[in-house]
Design brief:
Blueprint: H1 18-24, E1 37-41, H2 67-79, E2 85-89, H3 99-108, E3 112-116, H4 121-124, H5 136-142, E4 146-150, H6 156-163, H7 167-180, E5 192-196, H8 207-222, E6 228-231, H9 238-246, H10 250-259, H11 263-267, E7 274-277, E8 283-284, H12 287-291, H13 309-313
Parallel strand pairs: 1-2, 1-7, 2-3, 3-4, 4-5, 5-6
Antiparallel strand pairs: 7-8
Length: 339
């Protein structure tokens, strides 16, 4: 399979030595513990263009996973019972024409499906085709998907500031529709998790206290329910990095991350139990490495079409400056704090 040239937009020499910090704390090189989760980015198309988006997703992006690559994802999952979870992300993953097919096929294998659902896509629909997405809550419920959705804050000002005018109001309506089919409701087995990331260049507050605040405010003011809140640190790459550089805040933010390095968080980083797959089948250690064009280490298969479970499990995980974002404070991952 012929692949496009890797993204070389951020190939500047490292100014912060993440490997040295690992060694300083007796961690040496990061190695996988297992491959329990396959995280698949099915495309860059999104109905929004958020300021903090490390994927640089937007309504004008065209990259999209095709049926051939999606079929290969299914083949690999079917061959390895150890991979219990498919984590589907984007862009807005629902905008990929193969999305619903992929979900139903994975569920037939008995695997757990997590969807990084952009709440507002329920109302905005597909920016390219105009197709509606109002059916998504019912589709998710029918397939028992775990839904994970970003809500930057429980107040309109901070949410709209980060994600665009009107996003908060649409998000509240979307969560209500998910609640109506059972998501996040007491006694239901349909899981709705929300994601918080700071509106600026600072670390998230403690996850447990923020979750308590979110649950209280969303219930009292909007009558809404959800299961868990995940806190995620803004990663110093792509749009967020560009904004930091534009305002001369990059070094200050990086120093903040480095000073907050937590070896316990480093031991629990998500890349130790997962592998990331781009829309074209390229393999990376995590979603962030994928967005920077960082493949698996030399000598390890580079695409899902060359998949080798044992070799991938034996790899050293590739690290760089941005890894300080996952290991600062309580840690950060697609599943929230790690320590």
């Amino acid at each position: 399979m012929e692949l496009p040239v890797l993204n070389a937009a951020e190939t500047t020499p490292p100014r912060y030595d993440f490997t040295a910090r690992l060694i300083e704390h007796g961690l040496d090189l990061l190695r996988p513990l297992s491959i329990e989760t396959m995280q698949v980015n099915v495309g860059r198309l999104c109905n929004q263009a958020c300021h903090h988006c490390h994927v640089d997703a937007s309504p004008i992006r065209t990259e999209m996973m095709d049926r051939r690559t999606a079929e290969r994802v299914i083949e690999v999952l079917a061959a390895h019972d150890a991979i219990r979870v498919l984590d589907i992300t984007g862009g807005a993953p629902e905008l990929n024409p193969e999305f619903e097919w992929l979900v139903t096929q994975v569920r037939r294998l008995g695997r757990h499906v997590m969807v990084r659902h952009n709440l507002t896509v329920q109302f905005d629909g597909n920016p390219r085709t105009g197709a509606g997405m109002e059916h998504l809550p019912e589709f998710f419920a029918e397939n028992g998907c775990e839904v994970i959705s970003s809500l930057p804050y429980y107040a309109q000002y901070f949410t709209d500031r980060q994600r665009g005018r009107g996003v908060f109001e649409k998000s509240i309506r979307a969560i209500r529709r998910l609640n109506e089919v059972g998501y996040g409701m007491p006694g239901s087995d349909l899981t709705l998790n929300l994601v918080y990331n700071p509106a600026g260049a600072f670390l998230p507050a403690p996850q447990a206290s923020l979750e308590s605040d979110f649950k209280r405010e969303l219930l009292q003011k909007h009558g809404l329910h959800f299961n868990n809140l995940f806190t995620i640190t803004n990663m110093p790459i792509h749009r967020f990095k560009e904004d930091l550089l534009r305002h001369n805040g990059y070094e200050s933010y990086m120093n903040k991350l480095v000073e907050a390095f937590n070896p316990a968080a480093a031991r629990g980083v998500m890349c130790r139990t997962m592998v990331s797959i781009d829309y074209d089948g390229r393999l990376s250690d995590c979603d962030f490495n994928q967005m920077l064009g960082m493949p698996l280490e030399s000598g390890i298969p580079r695409t899902i079409f060359d998949w080798d479970f044992d070799a991938i499990l034996r790899r050293n995980i590739m690290v760089a400056d941005h890894c300080f974002g996952c290991t600062a404070g309580a840690g950060s991952s697609c599943g929230g704090a790690t320590a």
